[in-house]
Amino acid sequence: MQSALSIAPFHAWLGLRVEDVNDGVLHLSMPWRDEIVSNPRIPSVHGGVLASLIDLAGMYVLLTRTRAVSATASLHVDYHRPASGGPLHVHARVVKIGRTLSVADSEVRSPDGVLLASGRGSYLMRDGGIAA
Questions:
Q1: Which of 46, 70, 88, 130 would be a feasible disulfide site paired with 126, CB 3.0-4.6 Å?
Q2: What residue spans of the chain are helical by DSSP H?
C-alpha cells in the first residue's frame, strides 16, 4: 500500500505514510509542513489539504477491498477545529462497495487525537466493482 500511495507526486509531496492497513480500514499519517499553513497567526492548515487527506484516505481504503476504484464522484467535508500542529493522522473505513459507486468515511485527527475534520467520499467504480 505504501508504494502505491507514493507513486503520485502530490502524495509523495504530502509525505503520506501508511501506519496500519487492514481489510476495510486504513490509518495514514502526514508530517507537519510549513507550506500547508494558510493562516500563519494560528498557524492552521489550509482546508484543502484536510479535504485532500479525507479524499485520498477514502480512495485508498477502498483499494484494500477492490481494485475497481477509478475516481472521486463526490466529497463532503466537515471542519471541526483548526489543525495547528502535526503530524496529522487520518483514519478511513469502507462504508459500502457497490457496482458503480462505493463509499468511505474518513477522519483527520491531531497528534493528541482531537477530531479536526471528517468527511465522506463517494467513488466511481469501473468493471462493475470487481473485487481485488
A1: 70
A2: 2-6, 9-14, 47-62
The 8-class DSSP code of residue 86 comes to S
pLDDT digits (tens, 9 = 90+) for 52-72: 999 999 999 999 999 899 999
In one-letter notation, the amino acid at residue 57 is A
Q: Are 72 and 57 in contact (CB under 8 A)?
A: no
Q: Which three cell numbers stand for residue 74?
A: 463526490
Between CA 22 and CA 93 the distance in angstroms is 10
Rounded to two decimals, the pTM is: 0.92
Contact yes or no for 57/28 (Cβ under 8 A): yes
Which strand (E) or helix (H) includes residue 89?
strand 88-96
